[in-house]
Write a structure and sequence with these properties.
Layout: H1 12-20, H2 25-31, E1 37-38, H3 39-45, H4 51-63, E2 67-72, E3 78-83, H5 85-88, H6 91-112, H7 117-124
Antiparallel strand pairs: 1-3, 2-3
């Protein structure tokens, strides 16, 4: 058995990517980080997601115990989605992804607008042993 995997066929990286790897799942979790939201609020926050896709992603997150759905017995029906305690454990990871994404955007912009970007990028790539050619 691989020391990085648990159980017979379960790898933590593959599991994590399966659970949060949907097209909008990480974005949904991000928007639910501070408060519960109704379906229509999530639609407004993620306008590129169709209702069908958003519904599918929400169901998958609920089935994986990352979000909970609360249905209120009112007319018209009201449904709210919120993070579960297990879903909240993703927030530090999500904060790191958000920070990395911001750094990546800035770095990419710098490289795209630098005529010598190929030289800069290749000079920063370390060798397999971790050393640098420069």
């Amino acid at each position: 058995m691989n020391s990085n995997c648990y159980g017979e066929n379960e790898c933590p990286v593959e599991t994590a990517l399966r659970v949060v790897g949907g097209k909008y799942k990480v974005v949904i979790i991000y928007h639910l980080r501070d408060r519960a939201l109704r379906f229509s609020e999530l639609q407004k926050l993620i306008p590129e997601a169709t209702a069908k896709t958003l519904t599918k992603q929400l169901r998958e997150l609920e089935n994986d115990f990352l979000i909970s759905r609360k249905v209120y017995a009112v007319i018209p029906p009201k449904t709210e989605y919120s993070l579960t305690p297990l879903g909240k454990t993703l927030l530090p990871v999500l904060n790191n992804i958000c920070e990395w994404g911001g750094e990546y955007i800035r770095e990419r912009y710098t490289l795209e607008h630098n005529p010598q970007r190929k030289l800069i990028v290749s000079a920063d790539i370390p060798n397999e042993d971790g050393s640098s050619e420069n």
